[in-house]
Predict the 3D structure of the following.
Amino acid sequence: MASWPLLAALALVALITAARLTGTVDSDVAWQLWIAGRLHEGADLYRDIIETNPPLWFWMAVPVERLASLLHVRIESALIVAIGCLGALSLAATSRFLRHLEPSPRAMFLCAIAIMLCAMPWMHVGQREQIVMIGALPYAALIAARRDGRAIPALLALAIGAAAGLGFALKHYFLIVPLLLELWLIAGFRRRWHPLRPETLAMAGIGAAYSVAIVLIERDFLVSIVPLLTQAYGSFAAPSVRHLFGLPASVAVAILLVLGLHARALRQAPIASAIAIAAMGFAGAYFIQFKGWPYHALAMLGCASMALAALLAESKDKLRLLRLGGPALLCLPLSVSAGEAMRPTLPDADLMQAISDLPPATPVGFISEDTAIAWSVTLQHHFAYPSRYNGFWMLSSVYRNEQAGSPDARLTALGTEVVANTVADFRCMPPRRILVSRPRKGSWNEHANDPLTIFMRNPEFAEFLRHYRVTGRTSLEVYELAKPFPANNPAGCIRGH
């Protein structure tokens, strides 16, 4: 009976996972899962597939893809179950540090954790921000227990440190979180602090092993992708600071401000304090990335909400206003998530119309700066994808470079290389249909860049496109294969297709 709070929370995780099981994933995660399948087929990441993120996230998807293949289930379903299992493990580990709470507040807090870890990222299941949040929660609770001087089994600390280390390694920005937590621990311990602990050794081991693996296994990331990021990725910055304050980030900041107003009570709630510090670290990561994408705010929003729930569970103060308004504040992240789920941006009506008659395994090409256009339907409809690029995001930098007074020759060469590589890819697997996202007069994207203009400068691509005819013009220009290509197997085709 003493374990009923954890059992209730685990049952909630199982219910959320079952409800999510038949759904799909967002465009980034769809690309990640597609890459896992191509790696299994023999493709070489960063050579056959041009990807800007470090390899850990893709390596994590490989066992998920293998399991889905062996069980003959949808890869999205396998991922959703895997995330549910990770959430359950995070809950079980965190519950080990909540024995100072009475059963009822402990159950309330654990159920709030279950919702924030598994239900709040509904549209972004499997994103790195969800994974790191799952690992960071028990790590924050562990640091709070350390600060209180509680005895912690070394094996448990090792496991929590290793899991958290894998999450923090997904993005270097995430390292702000363990750094802030360590500074908080130093402030509490002062001269009694020592850095060599099971969890820190596990995290350091994970970081060292990952660094060595990149150098030995994926050196192309350092040689080819890092220079590409340096040249072209800057165009993805938010247009202004105001753009960073979308609904998820605004709700997270509001909850953090409420926590700040209750700093006195927070100091008497060690678990809440540690999670609030983690939330501030993730807020720093969000604003430093300067993108404003909703999923970037997941860990900040989730940890801020869990810190609030922990404060309500741990605090012995009356906190009347907070106890009255706290439940409403905790509902806000769910309302944000529900709004995203009910009003998805993609796939929109134009995209669904353009692919509605295509059977699975059809090769479909996409020419668009927005990677979400291709990856909101490709994995979900089991299309064959002929390109090594997930999208042509780099063309934005190519356009800006052309408009500069003294254009950078490296960016000019990058635009030429991207088009030439795409021609080679399309020749290896000629798409039955090519969808081009072009700006149209009077539309919302009237002043956007037209990627087809850069492609048509290449005579080989222009010749390739003569095999197609335009069959539709909405927000997408649809090109249908009209003149079949002769059967051949050109040299240099992408492995793993």
The chain has 21 helices and four strands. The first strand starts at residue 364 and ends at 367. The longest helix spans residues 320-342. Strands lie at 364-367, 433-437, 468-473, 476-481.
